Amino acid sequence: MDHYAVFGHPVAHSRSPWIHARFAAATGVSLRYRRIDAAPACFEIAVRAFFAGGGHGANVTLPHKHAACALADVVLPRARGAGAVNTLTALPDGRIAGDNTDGTGLVVDLVDNHGVGLAGRRVLLIGAGGAAAGVLDALLATRPAVLCVVNRTPERARALATARDAARIDAGGFELLERVPAFDVVINATAASLDGKTPPVPAHCIAAHSVCYDLAYAAGGTAFNAWAHAQGAAQVLQGTGMLVEQAAESFRLWRGVRPPTAEIRTRLDRLLDAG
Ligand code: NAP
Asked: Cβ(133)–Cβ(84) under 8 Å?
């Protein structure tokens, strides 16, 4: 039986074992997928021991995505752009490959699952941490008319733009939003919702047709979701779909087949609401 794991610290909350067990059932394979809690000081040793022991692949969550990028022998373009790895794969020659499936997960959820067009649209990405870095290239690849990245610490947003084609990204602090037209799609990639807070986005950024997406998720919706509803946004979404889609992309990298996700997304939403 092939072995997989998710590394994090803490990791007890991770839904990845549940999701991958359903992918395995849906694609008719049997595999073992477990949580491994590794403190930062032990992360590299734990990963190397896992792969030396025959592990086939691993997901990596907070706080290890940057460390995973540093330890991978081969870093694939999506991860190199993000500077962060969320998927490790054992290569036949014994090396470990690192990739990042977060951007694909977000875009598949927005475009394919929810029918949200990004090409030619005005898109606002809030945040400049690991998640924002992970999704930025995938958003750029959809060719939005405007891609604006704002962050509480403006230098981090500017650094993300500078590391790419800065001419295609408006980056800075929230003051950038003071005199701009409303956005078609607003994506919250900050950790504010985890504390029940919302980033200081001016109300005029949301129009009646806007789609608001929070990468975070919570039973009954996040604080950002509640704020977006209060601004009258047309569509308000949270990150459970992205969670399932980034996992599906990891599964595809490991097993060569992309599992179906619709039923699992519905079941995960129900699980979350049931607490
Ligand atoms: P991170 O690297 O720690 O970055 C945190 C970001 O949030 C930074 O931009 C930070 O701004 C900003 N921030 C934190 N508190 C804020 C507040 N009160 N007001 C405004 N901005 C605030 O975290 P991350 O890995 O990027 O994760 C961000 C979120 O994405 C988390 O909620 C995480 O659960 C979610 N996520 C979801 C998925 C999924 O599959 N659905 C995948 C990855 C991440 P500063 O730079 O100024 O500190």
From this structure: yes
**pLDDT tens readout for residues 144-176:** 999 999 999 999 999 999 998 888 999 999 999
The domain segmentation of the chain, as residue ranges, is 2-100+241-274, 103-238
> Which of 190, 215, 246 to mutate to test ligand 1, by most ligand atoms within 8 A of the CB atom?
190
Any ligand 1 atom below 6 A from CB of 154: no
Question: Which CATH number is associated with domain 2-100+241-274?
Answer: 3.40.50.10860
Name the residue at shortest CA distance from atom 12 of ligand 1.
190
CA distances (Å), origin 176, targets 184, 221, 233: 17, 27, 21
Closest atom, ligand 1, to C-alpha of 132:
26
The CATH fold assigned to 103-238 is Rossmann fold (3.40.50)
Nearest Cα neighbor of 244 from 153, 114, 79 is 114
Provide φ and ψ at 49, rounded to 5°.
-65, -40
DSSP state of 108: I
Please determine, for residue 275, whether its predicted confidence score (pLDDT) is greater than 80: no
Kindly report the pTM of this predicted structure: 0.97
Please report the beta strands in the chain, taking only residues with DSSP state E, as ranges in sequence order. Answer: 2-8, 31-37, 57-60, 74-75, 87-90, 96-99, 122-126, 146-150, 170-172, 183-188, 206-214, 235-238
The residue whose CA is least distant from atom 31 of ligand 1 is 191
Unique residue bearing structure tokens 């590299």: 44
Beta bridge partners of 170: 148
